[in-house]
Amino acid sequence: MKQAEVHNYLRRFFQAGGAEVLQSTPPKLDVQLNKTLDLELMNRPFYWHYLEKTGGDPNPLKMHLSTNMQSTAKAEEKVHFGSPRLHQIFASAADKGAVTRLYEQHDEQSQTPLYPWLGLNIRISYTCHRRRDDLRSFGVQLISGETIDAFMKRLSPLPLVPAIPDYTFTMAHLIQPTSAVQRIKKYLLDDIQGQKHTWANEATKRMEEDLSLLDRFYDERDEGSDAYMLEKEAIHQQYQPAIELTFINGGLFYLRKDTGAHL
Amino acid sequence: MHIDISFSTDWEETFKAALDNEGPWASWEMFSLAYEAEEHKAVPSFDGLVAPTHLPELSLYDHQWETARRVVEDMNGKAILADEVGLGKTIEAGLVLKEYMIRGLVKKALILSPASLVNQWTQELNEKFYIPAVPQKKTYVWDQCDVVVASMDTAKRAPHRDIVMEQPYDMIIIDEAHKLKNANTKNYAFIKSLKKRFCLLCTATPVQNRIEELFHLVSILKPGHLGDERSFKAQYKHEQASEDIQALVQNVMVRNRRDNTNVTWTKRHVENYSVEQTEEERAMYDAVCDLKQTVHDLHGFSLTTLQREACSSKEALGVTISNMLKKGMLSEEQVTPLVTIMNQVKTNAKAEQVLKQLQASEEKTVIFTEYRATQLYLQWFLAQHKIRSVPFRGGFNRGKKDYMRMLFRDHVPVMIATEAGGEGLNLQFCHHMINYDLPWNPMRVEQRIGRIHRLGQEQDVHITNYAIDNTVEQRILHLLYEKINMFEGLIGRLDDILERYSGQALEKYVEDALDSGTEGEARLKLHHLTELMNQEDDPYETGRSS
């Protein structure tokens, strides 16, 4: 993540979070936080608790951020990829952006139907003694059941708004959103089981090698001992191949028929 | 082959709740930001290191990067980090830990270090790696904090021990791991009983005296890698097998040497000062030597110890003499004449020389001595001449060590340290060192020098060795240390030497050599040793990182 990207990300985050951006001229970014963001990011629960008890006027803090790594200004907080502040903001975004319901904006002057889709973003982590992540994004049309890949990419050029636009009605779904989630789960499981997992074979091979060394170290009579079992468990935990599927975020998207066909 | 597959269901709950309550729904922008955050955080490949991209402010040396990569890719996260002193083992260990934390493979980690280094580790992990490490000060820290730094002595004691055993650590890092060379110690049993999914053992001296030490270290990481103890002992004595062992060790150990890194080191300037004793001191030294005639069962070891102490201070000698008297190793009659002679000694010639050196210099100086009594004496003596100093030794607790180091850095011109205090102490801010007396194991001298001559030292370092004329001290300096050029920097292949002497302690060898019947014999034996140490080639390619 380049420093310019960091700057843009921060600016967008604070705007989306309802803070007032006072200055945004890279590498500098000054923002006036609102109460929600102050509570979440500034770690001063006692202040807010005190305010609640005394009923004073809330006075959220300002943040002075810089993406200039050479900056020595004391009043500025340097932010870069890997800095705790950015990861705190990532976590905040993940929390705030977990679920959504959006409508496609359009200029039609006559009643226009919008079709329901369930969109779901997933992280697949392949772990053993090492790890790799893969992000997937699916969309399921909740009337036809049509399922498509790379849904996020298809959504990105569309004008999406939180309230239903004028001259618009939504089509009722035939498939429950939660059932669509189950469909995606099943699809992913089938997909994973159909793959060749060379990484897992490799990890299993290393695990077996270390286990056989362990057997050499302990005499046969010691092989039931606590020490032996402990080492064995540690080796399993070190190498055991696993795949974790985590839903990042998702929601309902009401899209025009012609857009859906393009998807 | 079996693969565990799991779904995390947290999101589904959130989604259901939002459906039921008609919100709250995220804006498209926030939804996109959440997805983009994941894109940035995702680790795209099993291979390589991602940690450096998270640490733009950390400047890494090539050997540190390469070491972390080897540990992660080739050694599966279990390794002995055995760089020579001062090459940044802490940085390498921090980098490996960070890599695993970013990849989500390590959440809970335990760092065990000497008490004096707990704060330093905590600080480095937080400031250089943004790893929220916490020093173990209160009992609740064990289960409530993810990354804990503690001293081995604390962790192995009740009530901590049981709590520590229950923690599901993903990674354990042990600093100064040569403390685990002996498999019959409580420390060893404690570490052995911890579950080690990933584990790093840091030590500059994986072998101090004998090759079995390496066997025990490797057996902590990867039991069976070097076979079982019996077969190992039987094997390593054969030349061929010894090479096989070296090859195996390379699979679990990274050892960078000063001369094969691209680090530009500042120079070492060495001066040896010969000190002439006063007549009274000479009489004291001679009286100690004469004990050999009157005390028949005085072993070479005890005599050498007494001789070395006599070269250090009469205070150091006095402590041992009185202990030997208590233990019945010396009788009242044997001791009395010696004590009379000792009482004549009014000045310490060596201390006077050191005083002159200190008075002529403005530089911060660390003085090393082998003896606690000498340490106390020197502190008193320097105080008499208005030179302030701080002591430093192994027995100090963590806070006191940190405080002493801080006093030395910020306020006091001299630190007087004993051997026990030498390990892990970082004194880059100082570049003058005095060896008031010398240990007889070159590895320990190297550890002393490593306190000031390490990464981060910006100036040339100045080392002054003091030795008393015509004593064991001068012999060891001339016959051993001057020949192996250790003070100048290239200390040869000390660990190879030690491996070749497998089974025989080096210090013992030196003592035996000095105890030889004739001067010629002693010279020959020590010459043999220095020849070995000066060999340029490295036939075993011991743990060289390539």
UniProtKB/TrEMBL annotation, chain A:
Organism of derivation: Natribacillus halophilus
Source superkingdom: Bacteria
Descriptive protein name: YqhG
UniProtKB/TrEMBL annotation, chain B:
PROSITE patterns: HELICASE_ATP_BIND_1 (PS51192), HELICASE_CTER (PS51194)
Annotated Helicase C-terminal domain residues: 350-498
Xref: Pfam families: Helicase_C, SNF2-rel_dom
InterPro entries listed in its UniProt record: DEXDc_RapA, Helicase_ATP-bd, Helicase_C-like, P-loop_NTPase, SNF2-like_sf, SNF2/RAD54-like_C, SNF2_N
Statement: the UniProt record of this protein carries the keyword Phosphoprotein: no
Keywords, comma-separated and alphabetical: ATP-binding, Helicase, Hydrolase, Nucleotide-binding
CDD domains: DEXDc_RapA, SF2_C_SNF
Residue ranges annotated for the Helicase ATP-binding domain, each copy included: 70-224
Alphabetized SMART domains for the sequence: DEXDc, HELICc
Molecular functions (GO terms): ATP binding; helicase activity; hydrolase activity
UniProt superkingdom: Bacteria
Protein name in UniProt: Helicase conserved C-terminal domain-containing protein
